[in-house]
Design brief:
Shape: rod-shaped
Helix content: 55-70%
Distance between the termini: 59 Å
Number of helices: 1
Oligomer: single chain
Number of domains: 1
Amino acid sequence: MPFLDYGMEIRRVICSTNAIESVNARCRRAIRARGHSPPTKPH
């Protein structure tokens, strides 16, 4: 597996980046499913 060819520090960064991207993807999916932000009340 090419992932294991990298050193421990590089693997840690790759895993962290994957986790961050996963969270971002979930947020985007939730926002898309819910729609845009609710309308604001007129002043």
